[in-house]
Design a protein that fits this description.
230 residues; alpha+beta; Methyltransferase, Cobalt-precorrin-4 Transmethylase, Domain 2; Arc Repressor Mutant, subunit A; 2 domains; four-stranded mixed sheet; four-stranded antiparallel sheet; 12 strands
C-alpha cells in the first residue's frame, strides 16, 4: 500500500481527513468539500470504510459525482485535486482540498437553501451567521477598530465569572437585538479577545488568547464609553 495512504488511514478520520465508503449523493460530498475549504483544507478518501478497511470504488462514477459536488453544489466552486491509489486490485480516490480564500463556501441543499460548513475534529458542522461574518471580516483588508462600551464590558465581566456564554445569554444580559449582539461577538473573535467552541449542540463563546485586562475594563467604565484599537 502507498505509504502516504497507509499513514492517512492509520490515523483515522480527523480535522483534515474524512473517509467515505461510497458516494450515493453528491451533496454529501459537497458538504465535506465545503467544510475543508472553509477550515484548514483536507483530504477525502473515497472507498474507505469508517474502520479503515478498503472497499474500493467505481472510478468513472465517482469522478462524475466529485465534479458535480465541487462545481454544481458548491458556491463558489471549490478546486480539488484527485489522486488514485490502487490497493490489492481495489481503487481508492483521494480528493484534496486547500483552505479557500473566498470563504464562505456554501452548499445547495435539497430545499434549495445554501449553507456553509466547517470542519470540527471529524465532523462537518453547519456554520452559523457569526462564523460566516467572521470569515468575511478576515478577508477584508481594512484594519480592526472596536468600540469598547457598556455591552462589551458587561460581556467581559460575565466571562470573568462564567466559563462560557451563548449568543442568547449575551442578548439577555445586554438586551441587544440579534444583529448588534452578533456584530460585537464577531469583532471580539476577530482580535482574539473571544474564542468559539462549536459542537452539534450549538455554539459557545469564552475568553480567548488576548483577554482584556482589568485596567482596560476600569478605564472604559470610568469613561462610560470609548474607542480602543486592538
Amino acid at each position: 500500500m502507498n505509504r502516504f495512504l497507509q499513514d492517512l488511514i492509520r490515523k483515522g478520520e480527523n480535522q483534515r481527513v474524512d473517509f467515505k465508503y461510497c458516494i450515493n449523493d453528491s451533496r454529501k460530498i459537497a458538504r465535506t468539500l465545503s467544510a475543508f475549504a472553509n477550515t484548514e483544507g483536507g483530504i477525502l478518501l473515497l472507498g474507505v470504510r469508517d474502520n479503515g478497511t478498503i472497499a474500493g470504488v467505481n472510478t468513472d462514477e465517482e469522478y462524475y459525482m466529485i465534479e458535480t459536488a465541487a462545481r454544481i453544489y458548491c458556491s463558489p466552486e471549490i478546486p480539488v485535486t484527485i489522486t488514485q491509489y490502487h490497493v490489492n486490485g481495489k481503487t481508492v480516490i483521494g480528493v484534496s482540498v486547500e483552505k479557500g480564500n473566498k470563504r464562505p463556501y456554501k452548499v445547495k441543499g435539497e430545499d434549495g437553501k445554501w449553507k456553509a460548513y466547517f470542519r470540527n475534529n471529524d465532523q462537518n458542522l453547519v456554520a452559523n451567521s457569526i462564523l460566516i461574518r467572521l470569515w468575511q471580516r478576515s478577508s477584508a483588508k481594512s484594519g480592526l477598530l472596536i468600540k469598547f462600551g457598556k455591552a462589551e464590558m458587561t460581556l467581559m465581566e460575565y466571562l470573568r465569572n462564567n466559563e462560557y456564554i451563548s449568543l442568547t445569554a449575551f442578548r439577555k444580559i445586554t438586551r441587544l437585538p440579534s444583529y448588534k449582539a452578533e456584530k460585537i461577538i464577531v469583532s471580539l473573535l476577530s482580535c482574539g479577545i473571544l474564542a468559539m467552541d462549536a459542537s452539534e449542540k450549538g455554539y459557545r463563546y469564552r475568553l480567548g488568547s488576548e483577554p482584556v485586562s482589568e485596567e482596560m475594563i476600569n478605564w472604559n467604565r470610568d469613561r462610560k464609553s470609548g474607542i480602543s484599537q486592538f
